[in-house]
Amino acid sequence: MVTLNEEMYIQVRLSKPDSSLVLFLDTCVASPNPLDYADRAYYLLLNGCPRDQTYRTFSNGSQSYARFGFRAFKFLRTHESVYLQCKVRICPKDDRNWWYVPLWRPQNTRSLDSQHQTATVVLGPIRLKDVENPAVKQLEDNMAQVDV
Predict the structure, then answer these.
(1) Could you tell me the residue ranges of all domains in the chain?
(2) What secondary structure does DSSP assign to 79-142, as a single string?
(3) Is pTM, for the whole model, over 0.90?
(4) What is the CATH class of 7-142?
């Protein structure tokens, strides 16, 4: 639960830290549909390039985790909930030529080989605190309270 324009901080990390690997955020997209991220997609990051004005990178491509932040956006106001999906690349730390080049540069045409892994992570649902959902309000109004 967030308020509109609230600063959100996200960390994506390897489940088992490994100092020989780095995690690189490739694409992060928000959608009200957790099964189809092309449906009303809102890109925060696309191919390593920030697409949202409030997106800030704190760590990306140098550790076994990536950290970023952004403000809860107006997109949330028009949907009951939003899910965030991020695609990440997991690369050997010593392969600097592969992961440190921003992906939106045209000269970067490298392809993945067996040393590079990708993963997709999902966060959500993200909901606004200050927006009343009529269905939830009706349920709360009709709910009986029981003290235990």
Answers:
(1) 7-142
(2) SS-EEEEEEEEEEETT-HHHHSS-TTSTT------TT-EEEEEEEEEE-BSSS--HHHHHHHHH
(3) no
(4) mainly beta
